[in-house]
Amino acid sequence: MNRVQRMKELIAKLNEASEAYYAKNQEIMSNFEYDRLYDELVNLEEETGMTLSGSPTVTVGYEAVDELPKERHESPMLSLAKTKSREELKEWLNGKEGLLSWKLDGLTIVLTYDGGRLEKAVTRGNGEVGEVITNNARVFKNIPHTIGFKGRLVLRGEAVITYSDFEKVNDEIEDVDAKYKNPRNLCSGSVRQLNNEVTAKRNVRLFAFSLVSAGEDGREVDFENDREKQFLFLKEQGFDIVDYKRVDSDTVIESVEDFAKEVKTYDVPSDGLVLTYCDMAYGASLGRTAKFPRDSIAFKWADEMAETTLKEIEWSPSRTGLINPVAIFEPVELEGTTVSRASVHNLSILKGLKLGIGDRIKVYKANMIIPQIAENLTESGNLEIPKYCPVCGRETEISKLNDAETLVCPNEDCEAKKIKAFTLMVSRDALNIDGLSEATLEKFIAKGFIHDFADIFHLDRYQEEITEMEGFGEKSYQNLMESLEKAKDATLAKFVYSLGINGIGLANAKMLCKAFRDDFERLKGASAEELAEIDGIGEVLAEGIRNFFDDEKKLASAERLLSELRIAKTEESEEEQIFLGKTFVITGSVEHFNNRNEVKELIERKGGKVAGSVSGKTDYLINNDLASASGKNKKAKELGVPIISEEMFLEMLDN
Question: What band does 25 get if pLDDT is binned at 50, 70 and 90?
Fold first, then answer.
């Protein structure tokens, strides 16, 4: 067993023992044995210069950010040319050797290490510009925090969530509509979280598939023109790499068959294979097209087809005004799951397929994931295009863009277009209504259950229809009713935030309500000048608030919602307002409090304000790691903002 494998084994054993001891009150290992294994791990980390993800020798602090910054890639990340022909792979090799590996179905990430430490992680984005997710990458299950190679190393890998971890996440979600559709969607959302504590809970893993560069002292590492040696180098540094086989023209077809047998039980989502020349110089000499590099090619699995009968077309209005046709058909098994519906996308596709109720159709899953109609065997073409929007009743229009016809609702006030507003209203920081995911809200709006904010609290009128909806049932309905009753007890600040006034987050809503002593009548009647004088509001936000309340329809909707709620008065803090006018930013882990929210609440009780990012308006940055090279510490130093530890903060409370 090599040293990296031994480190992974030790980390697993030590973490299992810690979880048993602290979370389950069980002792599966003596203190002596734990200390012995811990010391062995420390020694191996010193010898290799590596610290692997999850190591008990380090603690990664959770940190929230306001947004993910964008960054341009050093070199464009191109797509790959594709084939479904095994024979074409053989011809493509042209007598050369290649590496055949999984084409994983997740989110491509570029990692940069410098001096042995993870410096940066950036998503693929559009291939030219990606999002910086370094903080989130640090909590991936298997990314090394430090590596033995001390030069500058850049690699590409695929962030994925395994099928088994995907099922665990979905099993905890009762509402069928709120469940994630596939591991890729869950992974994409997890990797791009603004709070990496959420990312950590999702068990994201990264598999390296390409070494971009590895240089030290101005020279690139010599891999003797062999791409496999790059893979082995990455493995030596502690990275998990994609499973691969070294192939040639005689073995490539057989190797594809081996992968094909394994894909049905492989726990990591994959939508095909990638074949790359081992001879790096030869691959580079081929250049690239405008879209594809010529040193690699992707192999896509042939799609599994099933024949079924079209039962109906569901016309689903969306927030953009498009009314999307969705095919509902007799359930069939595809790629191991039962499928009964597929998006038809637009009128052009619907007309091209000549769809009609009762038609025999062939369906498949694109990339083994997304249900699609491949062919209509009977082509009756007897469908009628709706003349009126199923939500608002306004006459529909047919729009044509780039030769594609779509059905649209032209009504700007159509409730279907308000989905984002309803989603904000039910969110955790607003009225916190469990069981109303965006997908569920969209269905309720489409069926005419919801037209106005207040309608959400009268869904009991549709008990029979809701319980008969696919995936809902009596239990989900009762849970929703309980959640709605609980949500009626709210603070005025949460109500104001739920209205979706431009620029007004929960923190500003609290400031507004505090300024008007939780009196909504005073708030809605305040002038722009009065509003602008409130700390954190200013002229632009004040104008937006005033415009909102001057809109008779918006004000009436807000007042109807307010009449459904039981607003609790916020108790005036009797504590000394020692932080009045002061703005803090909190980062890293805390030791004297259960979490950073406790620190935030304490600061707010004492008159202060807590922001998510460091700016010229910040008075103090609280970080127990004063010497940290984090972005917040760097920004604070640039702006001359004092960085204080928790101990220093506690001293401020005592003075």
Answer: very low
For domain 491-568, which architecture applies? Orthogonal Bundle (1.10)
Among 8-17, 30-39, 262-271, which stretch is predicted with the lowest mean pLDDT?
30-39
CA 348 from chain centre, in angstroms, equals: 32
DSSP string, 102-132: EEE-SEEEEEEEETTEEEEEEE-TTSSEEEB
Greater confidence, 151 or 271? 151
Handedness of CA 539, 542, 548, 552 (dihedral sign): negative
Nearest C-alpha neighbor of 101 from the set 253, 234, 241, 240:
241
Question: If DSSP codes are grouped into helix, strand and coil, which group holds residue 524?
Answer: helix
Q: Which two tokens stand for residue 61?
A: 């602090």
Provide the pLDDT for residue 59: 56
pLDDT at res. 405: 86
pLDDT confidence tier of residue 402, bands split at 50, 70 and 90: low
Statement: 583-654 belongs to CATH 3.30.1700.10: no
pTM over cut 0.90: no
Residues with Cβ within 8 Å of residue 318, at least 6 apart in sequence? 324, 416, 419, 442
CATH topology of domain 70-300: D-amino Acid Aminotransferase; Chain A, domain 1 (3.30.470)
Our answer to whether residue 261 is catalytic in this structure is no
Residue 487: the pLDDT is 92
Q: Does residue 595 surpass a pLDDT of 80?
A: no
CATH superfamily of 305-408: Nucleic acid-binding proteins (2.40.50.140)
Structure tokens at 200: 């950590």
Which residue has 């209205």 as its token pair? 499
Nearest to 342 by CA among 378, 379, 377, 305: 305
Domain spans of the chain?
Answer: 3-48, 70-300, 305-408, 415-487, 491-568, 583-654
User: Which residue among 8, 90, 103, 524 is the active-site one?
Assistant: 103
One CATH from 1.10.150.20, 2.10.109.10, 2.115.10.20, 2.60.40.10 for 415-487: 1.10.150.20
Pick left, alpha or beta for residue 327 (phi over 0 → left; psi -120 to 50 → alpha; otherwise beta).
beta
Helix axes 438-446, 419-426, angle to 10 degrees: 130
What pLDDT score was predicted for residue 619?
92
Query: Which pLDDT belongs to residue 22?
Result: 47
Residue pair 409/391 in contact by the 8 Å Cβ criterion: yes
